[in-house]
Amino acid sequence: MTINSNEERTQDYRPDENSKRNDYLNKIKQQQEEQETFIRAIIIMFIIFICVVAAIFFCSSNAEFIKKQFGENSFITKIFNSVNKDNDVKEKAEFSLPFGPKRQNILLLGVDASNNDNDLWTGTRTDTIILVNVDPKTKSINAISIPRDSKVYLPDNNGIQKINAAHAIGGIGMTIRTIEDTLGVHIDRYIMVHDNAVKAIVEALGGVDVYVEKPMRYHDYSGKLHIDLSKGEHRLSPEQAVGYLRFRHDALGDIGRTHRQQWFLRGLLNELQKPETITKIPDIIDVTKKYVKTNMSLYELSQYAALTKHIDMDKIEIATLPGEPNKKGYISYWILDPQKSQEVVNRLIYREKVQPDENMVLSAGIMYSQAGADEAEIVKNELTAAGVNIACTGNISKTHTQFIAHSSIVTNEYFNWLKKKTPSIAGYQFVYEPVNYYCGQTDFTVIVAGK
């Protein structure tokens, strides 16, 4: 079936699946609350830490430059010297965690603003909850986003609550225990970032370059939120970055905002790799002192910063705990799907893998924007030549390309193998979503977008 930009759907796409997708999106819209909150990127909070030393590693070949900028006995120069000690020996590993080669689970939390300038943390709710699994052996990162409205039982007889209430009631200790009990995992370290940190870090960097996929205009005078962005390339100011991350007034609501956090993250990482960023490290350190809490030592943070040199952003595997919204009275909950959520935990935290049958034929859906129709035709032909069954195609309003795995047998390893057979998807972002509302029961979906 030839793909062309004038098609609404190909005949392979079934109307009942389109209805199912619309029902799902309607449920997402019902789940949204009136109050605007941040949904940050999986490593946006983590970046605030590694910015302190990561830029040093990107410029690690120029020790004299660092010494000249900060002085021979400065704090920054000492970190650089200690972490990069013996790096001139080529055979020596550049990354060795102080606690050995075992995988670590790091909890990233973003808390809302408090009314007490003297205590930024007590009584605050966790608007962003992300569990990151770091594997030193493979130098890879997986991350699970936990919806803040997830309905859970809180320990110490605190009953049923939204998961973001755990910190307001019992602090970081109750938050960790709640997540451990809910997901059956152990949390090794935590990093907690205040609501104002993203704005402060963008200000310290002097802006972040991001492609804005659609016009974004929204004004909330009571909430002091003003968003006025046109479609196209922008260097976001601190205020514009806040608006970009908080905007949710489109069909996908918080789901669309979750996608935008990933593009913002890429812009942050690109900014971090610029040589001039090294001169901004003192300002970044000031941000972390005020807006960040963690039980990680400086040495541990520096070792994680070393890991950033080896991370391929296209190989990071991310997922959101599956479920659906449910409203009880005036309270909106996200009801987790136990089976699907366990699949996500097994795959991303415990790194369980399912070996596919060599003779198994995987099925795919191709969703494309009008501007991506020509590229979608190329993707379709290459996937077909690679032995993939194209089960459905259709139009979608997207401006970023993705490879979305729905089946447990579609692993990053399979994706890397498939990229060799299908060069047109080489730069696509890998995402794991066990709930498939794009194309029914396909093993994976390819989103082909155009600017």
Structure write-up:
- With 451 residues, the chain is α/β, with parallel strands linked by helices.
- The protein folds into 2 domains: 15-31 and 354-448, Alpha-Beta Plaits, CATH 3.30.70; 44-348, Aminopeptidase (3-Layer(aba) Sandwich), CATH 3.40.630.
- It has helices at residues 15-31, 44-58, 63-70, 75-83, 165-183, 197-205, 238-246, 254-272, 281-291, 298-307, 338-348, 373-385, 412-421, and strands at 104-111, 126-135, 140-145, 151-154, 159-162, 189-194, 208-212, 216-220, 225-229, 232-236, 292-294, 317-320, 323-328, 331-336, 363-368, 389-395, 402-405, 429-432, 444-448.
- It is globular, with a radius of gyration of 22 Å.
- The chain starts with 14 loop residues before the first helix and ends with a strand.
Features:
single chain; 451 residues; alpha/beta; Alpha-Beta Plaits; Aminopeptidase; 2 domains; 6-stranded mixed sheet; 5-stranded mixed sheet; disordered N terminus
Strand order of the largest sheet: 11-6-1-2-3-12
- CATH architecture type of the largest domain: 3-Layer(aba) Sandwich
Do you know the CATH topology of the largest domain? Aminopeptidase
- The count of β-strands is 19
Helix count equals 13
Mean pLDDT: 75
Question: Rg to the nearest angstrom?
Answer: 22 Å
Give the strand content.
Answer: 15-25%
Shape: globular
The assigned structural class equals alpha/beta
Relative helix content: 25-40%
